[in-house]
Amino acid sequence: MARALLLTALAAAALVAPAAGHGFLAVPPSRNYYENTQQRFWNHMSGNGAGPCGDPFQGMTTNFVASPSPIQATYAAGGTVTLGVVLTSNHGGRFYYRVCPRTAPLDEACFGTNYLTRVDNGQRDTWLMSDAANWTAAYRLPAGLSCDAGCVLQWRYEAMQSCIVPGCDPALCGGYASGRNVVYGSTPGFCSPTNNARLEVFSNCADVRITPASGGGGGGGGAPSDPPPPPPASPAPAPTPPPPSDADDSYARVLGQSLLFYEAQQSGALPAWNRLRYGTPGAQGQVGYRKDAHLTDGAAIGRNLAGGWYDAGDQIKCPHPMAWALANVALSGLEFRDTYVAFGEWEHLVSTVSWAADWLARAHVAASDAPAGNVFVGQVSNDADHDWFGRPEQNPTPRPVYLVNSTTGGADVAGEYAAAFAAAAGVLRAAGNETGAAALFKRAEQAFGFAVEPAHRKNYVIPGIRMAYSTYASNGWLAHVAWAAALMCRHSPAYCPTAETWWGTASASSLQYSFGFDWDSALPGAAAVLAAVPGLGVSSAARTWLEGFVLAKWQNTASRCPASPYSTVCYTPKGLAWYSEWGTLRNTANAVWLAVLLAKSSAPASKATHACWARRQMRYMLGSSGSDRSYVIGYGPNWPQRPHHRQSACAATYTPPCALRNGGTCCAGESGTGPGGCCDQPNFMSSNPAQITLLGGLVGGPDQSDVYPDIRNDYKQSEVAVDYNAGLTGAAAGLAAMLAAGDLAACGAGPGGPTPPPPPAASPSPPPPAASPGPAPPAASPAPPGTCAVTIAPWSNPLTGSAAEPRRPGQRVPPAAGTCSDAAWPNHCCTSGNVCVKENPWWWACKPGTAAPPASPTPAPPATPSPAPVPRPSPSPAPVPPSPSPRPVVTPPPPGTCVASVGPWGRCGGRVDACPTNVPTCTDSQWPGYCCGDGYECKRDSQWWWMCAPKPVSPPPPAPPACANAVANWAQCGGRSSKCPPAAGTCTDTPWANHCCASGSACLRDGEWWWACKPAPATTSAQSSLLLAALAEGAGGDSLTAASSARAELERERLDLLVFTAAPRRVRAGARVRLALALSRQGAPVGGAGVYVTITTSGGGADAATATLGPFTTSADGSLRVTVPPRLRGVAGARSVVQAYTGDARAQGAKGGVAVMSGSARIAWT
Fold this sequence. Notes:
By secondary structure, this protein is of the alpha+beta class. The chain is about 25% helix and about 15% strand.
């Protein structure tokens, strides 16, 4: 019952906030968003009202028309600008941008004549075709409009959940043209005066300066306009990526910068070899900015724990991901040492590995051959760290130490210690330090012994303490043990039988369905290591699983976004293999690292497949092909300017004395934010670019639409971390080695498939006479229709392995094509299972499809005999080489007969070069007589691979609705009513009893007295699914399954929930009011947490008053009571808006449980 009340309170609290504003203009910052960064106005949402800037804000009197902010950006008239908004409640519809000089009346007459237009399609409207939150695009400013005194840039959002604006072009707005809300999937119909339906309109304004077209930009904290690009050849609904280039990236530079990132993350007394030490020239043109910090870490337990790496943009030290990252970085040096040596990075690698391994050895605070005698550090510091926004050397927060021991267990953490020790021992041995290598491997044996002790075989968890990292799956420790055993086997063959045993146990568990590789999911890494160990019994099985399941998921380009995060890999419009909503590039880089490892030990055909896919994904991340930006800071085009990293937001140098302020410091001469500003929370929350270039850091990455908003407090997309760079480091080293060996020469510039060898050279017959009107290539006699003169591999074109750029006059064309037009080239065929399709305005590529394969992949015979024909090895006229042992004719077995039993994830069909001898022909189907075990079925997993996969489990049939009346969408389903339906019993401010909404909708509050059935927007967000399920559970009905699923998703993302459990809606003027709140984490109460409450009271003829109270401390049961102060109690007719949040909700940086669900309530004074 308490759980139901908590969820119901969450629903009520969360539903109030969206009515106040559905989003905000983030780039450039809107007026109220700017005020929010200055700590003067917490709610930065858009306002819903008739005012041009959404003013006055609902329930408040702040007027943002009369309150201009400093100039946020400077643009050039008629130029292009990048604008971005964040939708907190996406109800579908459209938005647009307009501009008006600040010296003119800010009215419709001014805004209505100065619309911005999209660069990609020339239109002013952006139609919401998905439920995405971040929307960024390039727009063109009106020509001839300039305003040295400043302009107001207006963002206007028309939400269309109630009705659709008629008359839009279906080519641009899709289903909206027929009256359908594309985001909701509902059909509310068109807006008209007769149906009493209206739009919800929201607005934000930002202050910008527009200079004449001949003038420059700069200043004001913004950036100058981009140079205007040439107009697009034809309108398109989405921007087209630039034509791919065949030039490879500078892997040496990527590798060097990635190692430099690990130096930026060092803690403790910095070594002399750190290239970023304060006062030194720094690396690659930077000024040194790092100082010694946290020198007393470990004092609480009497140990020296100074050193190691800070985890991410915070200053916590977390051995779990630190050890995982170290193991992978060290493994990259073992696998590709020659690359490190050639690039001059070997010494940097050895130093980096030694630094982290030394700290882990000291964090192994008790080492013993007896498993129970080992003790490890589980974490240094805690949640308090996330309230600090300053430099590490000035951080005053306490640094408690949490331990892994025989009481807590923790095979997952101990397994990562063992893996890191084993891999680092290999690097020290390769560097000639046999003594150091032996000492580390001894620790690996001790840590492994602790992990496999039966009493310790569980994940590390301390009740009541939130760890920044905790293994999600209850049996996840198995993967960490298997990963450690694999690396120990690689170092010492004596451990290979142990590695085989633990691989077999882990791969037979539910972990066999894991295809992500990161600190939480280590089994794919174990497979990659074991697959390369010669003579190992499980090598083949490990390779089969890694190649046939894990990488087959990642390389399945037929899987297109959108898709649910973590459930599969989908491909974005620009070609990224996307996996998660939290740091997806971390997972992609790790998959690229796996592909590189597997390619190194693969046969040529598989090597080309994996290497070319890895290259394509790496080039997306580096901005050299597909995407229009790099995601590695300091490398490539348009790299991130605002990483979620505290110190990088601050100045590189400063002058003491420094005073503590706003969760950071203000040093001598510093004030405000940005250059010359303080190093504190307002600075971190501001939109100013980072003042320190965090070279080599890989950010979280884009969403499923390739959108990257570059907002610092967006921790899911903008964060950097030591585990993010681990796969990037290995991938750069591996691809560099393959480039040097020529293994990437066949890749071309497409999305990763290998290009076939070039077609045979033309016969040396004399060229045609000069008077001949035909072109130099003999194209006058084309091959018969349906004949392939050139066969193209997936994702490739025939231009000697290069990408087809836009055709220019005089540029050569493939001889067999004759002419190159905007169509598939004549006489060019794709391999079986692929079809030539248009990918962009200038590029057609062979991609997986259902078109029939060409009649023959053999090149057609030349029209004239060659002067020097090649003799055939057989008198047979067929061009098939003789086989020393012809394949016997195989008779298919009778239906239902099994000739081979295939285990889980084993191959049971598809095309292969070496077809099993008991299969007549290997086609794109299940092989006759190949049977899967109980609970499994043979089904396609890629364009060439069929496998035995689990059969889908049918969900139980839904229970019949427990209600007597079905309510149509947008009709009333609850609330007070003078005409209360008899079936409802009594009509109170809740959903009515015995009334149900249609499937896909929920009864939600739509006003102070009105509840309506509203379509539930499709979303992949755990928070949104939790909210919808909580609503349904609180209201009763057939939603227990949905609520249970939401709770499971809640536990996966480890969210905090702060809700009002008691907040009166109507109170007598001036009366004493007590508010009650509850803070929970994964359903358990959280005591001892700091909570802030902001109350704003306005209206009723009295002056507005606002104040932030706290921090208050929650009691042991997570509860908290707050009394509204007399000065904030309203007169008759006034209203109060109350918002509650934790320090983590403001910082938005705690990976283990950020309070993303903060509370909100409203009070009407009567």
